[in-house]
Structures are given as structure tokens and as C-alpha cells.
Amino acid sequence: MTAKLDKQTKPPVISRRLSGLVVSNKGDKTIIVRVDSVKTHPKYKKRYTVSHRYQVHDEKNKHEVGDKVNFIECRPLSRTKRWRVID
Question: Domain 15-85 carries which CATH code?
Fold first, then answer.
């Protein structure tokens, strides 16, 4: 009976969620989102900002530059897009 339970239960899917600012919406159904994070230098203890840019799938082309969006990791949609907008 325990073998039957093991086959039915699936491990939980862990998907990464991020939020950031739209910096470009020139692509068709694609927006570029900048995510800023604050880090501290291990030796000097100075705080500094690190930015990453993600290409995010926007199905309805409704987000404009300056909008704050939440997005989630998904299957590869193109060579560089692995994220999609959460509404």
C-alpha cells in the first residue's frame, strides 16, 4: 500500500517569483524587467545595488515602461525567455 501512495504523491513544484520594473516593451509579447537587489560586501560591510534584467513573456502587450510587475519562472518560451507575467 505504501508503494501505491508513493506513485500518487508528486513532489511540490518550486517556482521562483520575482518582481521588478519594466524598462523596455519594444518586443512583441516581450518586456524587459529590471530586478534590483541590495547586497552587503562581506569585508567592508558597504551596501550596494545589483541589477539583473529578465526577458518576460507578456501575452497581451499591456505593460508599459515604468510599470511594476510580478513574474514567475516557466518552461522555455524562446531562446532567452523563461519567465511570464502574473496577472
Answer: 2.40.50.140
